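== Protein entry: sequence and backbone fold ==
=== Local backbone shapes as whole numbers ===
==== Amino acids and backbone structure tokens ====
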Amino acid sequence: MSSKQLQQYLKKNGADAEFFKFEEHTMTVDAAVSRLGVSRKNIIKSILFIDDSGSPVLGVVVGDKKVDEQKLALACGAKSVRRANPVEVKEFTGYDVGAVPPIGHKKEIKTFVDGKVMALSRVIGGGGEINTLLEMNTEDVRRLTNAQVKHISR
């Protein structure tokens, strides 16, 4: 999927979103912070995991935190989760690693958003391409993914 398709998805679903495109990559929190001049706490990471039954699980946390795999496993009712490899990320989300937005995935993915994300009104994350960022309302993130809000960060 492309950032253009993602824009169409967001518009169709009434989301309040803005895209930022750069010459350089925005694949890491540090790159995003550098390009936009914002705090790490305003950036979100959307990280795909695979649970012990082989199902995809998305963890969304603020940029200065990491997903706690034990907390995520507990939240999704699995014994364990592992980080998805790049092929799995592309297969389930439709996006490359470093470009994964919190919404608009190729397949339906059980999503868990950390409470620290929901404490913010707007956040910035992957925009569908490795040089594109997406800023959107956190309530739209929760609504469009049917996410559960859980404490999944460390």
